[in-house]
Amino acid sequence: MMKHHTLSRREFLQSGAAATAGLAVGFHLPTSQAQVAKSASMAGSAEINAWIHITPDNRVILKFARSEMGQGASTALPMLIAEELECDWSKVELSEAMYSEHIKRNRLYVTTATGGSRGTRDSQSYLRTAGATARVMLIEAAAKQWGVAAGECSAANSMITHAASGRSATFGSVAVAASQLKAPEKVALKEPKQWKLLGTAPPRVDIPDKVIGKPMYGIDVVRPNMVHAAIAQCPVFRGKLKSIDATSLAAVKKMKGVSDVLEMGEYVAVIGNNWWRCHQGIKALKLEWDVGANGNVSSASIKKYLQDGASKPAGVAKTVGDFDTVYAAAPIIHEAEYYAPYLDHAPLEPMNCTAEVKDGMVTIWVPTQSAEGSAAAAARAAGVAPDKVEVFRQQLGGGFGRRGGFQDFTRQAVELAMKVGKPVKLLWSREEDIQHGHYRPATVARVQGALDKDGKLVALMGRVAVQSILERVRPEALKKTPQGTLDPQGTVSFDDSAYAIANLRAEHFYATTHVPVGFWRAVAHAQNPVFRECFLDEIAAKAKRDPYAFRREMLMGTDDTSRRERGILDAVAKAADWSKPLPINQFRGIALQDSYGSHAASVVEIEKRADGKLKIKRVIIAVDPGHVAHADAARAQIEGCVIYGLTAALYGEITIKDGRVEQSNFNDYRMMKIGETPEVVAVLAPSGGFWGGMGEPPMAPLAPALLNAIFAATGVMHRSLPLSREGVTFA
Fold this sequence. Notes:
By secondary structure, the protein is of the alpha+beta class.
């Protein structure tokens, strides 16, 4: 894991050497004024890979260090800079921040990772500071030229103005002079009420090119002298190649376009001049695998193992009050067991990477959520230092967490490039992609609750049996307790609940299986809210309480979290007209969950038809992320979460038989269709004072709200997903 370097404010904001063509403001650049002056004097010097570059003709070029995967980050993040810079947004240009500069200058861009709904919330402070710092330096440069006080000048629309004298100057005309000034130690950022750009919805910069098919996705990369690779990996995880049938091997090597067949331990690769020919070669090989002891594992055996883990005391993540005593004495108690299956990310673009290893350097062209993660995998595979790797980030045809922490496809591409001695473009087939994912872990949860005589929830216990994701990527984040190891992800929704419950216990059974698990959109907040929020509806029904009122009563605290949770619950109830009765045969469910720094609530409305089928009529999701950068992108995130989340709840399931994944393509791992998609009402309710995420929080309350709606319609709580396996049919 890379170490973070602590920078002083001056190092962080100090202007680096600027080309005579313009001003570059970056982070951890040379602080010696002699260095700056020397670099600035270099005629024709190129951009130095800082956040802001301004040219003499007044073009503003902003660096983008994260990944664009449809979420609109390539627009929202530059908006943070532009707001404080006071530049003309219509003339802004974007430039990719290269990994090589990032690593050579000691994490110049802080991070290149895009995941965990962190893009805006983690970078807003330093990006806004970068813009404000540049604005102050530009104003100071103009003021010096005019011989006036900087405080008498202002900036707007890429112009500096001295109102008293009526003089003005473009950013570009003072950029070189500004670049030679010291960066201020401290700059004031605008108050939200002063924002002109943030919170609005200017046209997204990525969409016009997508309409005409201009962006380069990883699957589009072509390099000189490049060969293609298709692979087959051991169908049972952790297995390896035993042998290849000699006759089939000889036949494949003679196939048109095939240049080689490589045995790589846990996988076999066919190399050739055309991916389809390589793929046909892979299919023609007769492979024998050593599957080890995992060849008998099934979904049933895994579920039984998890159920056993959830049925006995496990590692205690949090305890408040005395759950056991209160539960034993309560007049009304309730217990339920829930199950969520493995899920694949299933991005439209399968895993791929193009790699070249030459002269001690490794270059990769990869659709990645983390240039640093891809580079680390490439460096390990090639046995070189991280600064010997260059990463060209391509647009992503879907990420959802799959293209972040686990970079098996990058490692394989580099291994093959080293073996072949040429640039290799590795592309997984759809079958490989679905059958060799890093899945959302299968989970069993046992939940117990107690009501007092007045119908108030006085005790709640959630015990979650689930594999650890952090075990493989951030083992230092695991917690050791007297009862065993805990993954903090295991008990989210229970140990971090905003509900005021006097007696609470959260436990995690640390499960281990041979199935690889990873960060699936919203991670534990994709399934744990189902366990908590559906249980609340079940126990509220025992108390004969309205689900909305039942939740709201537990959120009457005066602290910020309670206030915001109550506020977003009220916002979604208002948007859904919760106080008004629905038409006959229509029902609704509600759910609440905070995650990734934001607060979200959902109401799902369904119709029960005469033939017994259900129809999802409308989904309302309200999110309070504190502040919103790009309003339209934020609403689009909500809409995308609805489709992705409903697909999972209705149909999503990866099953294991004989140690291997049974699903292979979209015919048996189906997606939600356009005709099935309900009306989506996206409610943005920013309360201010903080920056939360948007990519995953809308997912968290969605599935439980749907299950609660079905419970309201049928009186049956379906505690196992997907609903298609539960016999629930939708019109």
